[in-house]
Specification:
With 444 residues, the chain is of the alpha/beta class. It is built from 14 helices and 15 strands. The radius of gyration is 22 Å and the shape is globular. Bound molecules: nicotinamide-adenine-dinucleotide.
Amino acid sequence: MTLDRRTFVQSSTGVAAAVAGFPYVRRRQDDRRVRMGLIGIGDRGTGTLRLMLRRDDVDVRAICDIDPEAIARGREQLDEAGVTDYGVYDQQEDDFRRVVERDDLDAVLIATPWEWHAPMALAAMRSGKWVAVEVPVAVTLEECWELVETSEETSMPCMMMENVCYRRDVMAMLNMVRDGLFGELIHAQCGYQHDLRFGFKFRPGVEFGPNASGPARWRTQHSVTRNGDVYPTHGIGPVSNFLDINRGNRFVTLTSTASKARGLHQHIVEHGGADHPNANVEFKLGDVVTTVLSCARGETVVIMHDTNLPRPYSLNFRVQGTKGIWMDDLRSVYFEERSARPHRWEEARPYQDEFDHALWKRYTSDAEGAGHGGMDFFVLHAFVESVKRRVPPPIDVYQSATWSAVSALSEQSIALGNHPVVFPDFTAGKWATNARDFGLSDEF
Ligand SMILES: NC(=O)c1ccc[n+]([C@@H]2O[C@H](COP(=O)([O-])OP(=O)(O)OC[C@H]3O[C@@H](n4cnc5c(N)ncnc54)[C@H](O)[C@@H]3O)[C@@H](O)[C@H]2O)c1
C-alpha cells in the first residue's frame, strides 16, 4: 500500500486532490504551557535550551544526550533557571526512547546528528508527541516518506526547525514577493556556502570521528561517504516559501553536479602533514555541488553546497521575476518600475525596513539576543505556539520532507552521472490546492 502510493506519486503528473490545506485557527491560548523534552545538547541544542528557558510558556521536563559534558551544560542551564523537576537520560544511544515515552511531555525537540533525526522523530510521533527536528529532518528518501506517513497515521505534527525562513530580510523579501514587486517569479538561487573546515574543531586540527569534538565527530563523515547537497534546507526552505512550493506549486525534477573534492584533503595536509593518517582518507563529497530544480509553474531554482573550501559565509539568495531581482550577496535589489536609475542596483536595506514582516515588528525585543540575528527565537516560537493552539506548525511534515529530500535526490542524480531525477510529491496531489500558510499572521 505504502509503496503503491510512493510509486504513484512519483510517476504522477500532479493530479490535484480536492482536499484543501488545513485552515489555521488563530486564537490566543496564552494560559497554556508546553511541556518539552530536549534530545541533543551540543552546539545547537545548548542555544535552543537557553531560548526554551527564556520562555514563560515552556516547561523543560527532560534532557537527553550521550555526552556527559553536554548533560553537564544542560544541567547548569536548568539550575541557573531554577528548574528542578526534570529527568536526565544519558546512559545509551537509545535512551531517547524513554524520553518520548514519558507521559508528562507534549513535545520533544531533537538537535542531534542528522542520522538520528528520523529515528527519533518517528519514535516521538508514535508516542503521541509533537516533534520539532533540527535541519535536515532526514537523510534518506525512505526516511522522508516514513516521516510523512507516520505523521499522517499518528496525526502528530513534525516541524523541521528551519530558522532561515525567519531571517528578517528573508521575511521582508517574502512580503515583497507577495506584494508583487518582483512581478511573476521566474528563478531563484540559494545555498549553503560556509567554510566548515572548522568542523575539524580546534582548528588547525585535522581529526574527525570519535577522536574529535563537536560536529566534527559526525558531520565530516558525511563528506567521506556521500556525494550530493547534504545540507540544502537553509536555502531551499525560504525559496520554497517564495515559490509557494506545496502550496500551489511543486518541485518536478532535480539534477545535481559535483566538482572534484580537494578542500578537506588539502586542509589535512597543510595542518597535519602529508603523513597524517587522515591524509589517506578519500573524501567523496565534491567541494562545490550545484543542483537545479524545475517547478510545476515553470520556475527554476539553483542550490549551491560549498562547505570545504576557504570562503566567507553566504546563503546565496537570489530572487528574480518579471519586474525585479534581489541578490543577497550584493545586499542589493533592482526593480524596473521603482529603482531610481535604470540598470543600477540599489541597496536592499531600505526595502527591508519598508516591508518588514509583521512578526518581526511585533517580536523584535523578544528576538533580541536569540541566535543567528534573532531568527532562532521565531522558529522556536512558531513551534511552541502551534503546540499550544493545537494547529499545524507553519513548517509541516510535507515541507520538512520536501526540503530534506533534496539531499538524497542530489546524491541519486550525481550517482547517475548528473541525470535528472523525478521529485516525489509528498503531498499526494494536495500541493495543487493547499492554501498558502507560512508567514500570514503576526502571531507565529
Ligand atoms: N538551524 C541551524 O542554524 C543549525 C545550526 C547548527 C546546527 N544545526 C543542526 O543541529 C543538529 C546538531 O548539530 P550540532 O552542531 O549541535 O552538533 P553537536 O555534535 O554539537 O551536537 C549533537 C549532540 O547530539 C548528541 N547525540 C548524539 N547521538 C545522540 C543520541 N543517540 N542520543 C542523544 N544525544 C545524542 C551528541 O552527544 C551532541 O551533544 C544538526 O542536525 C545540525 O544540522 C542547525
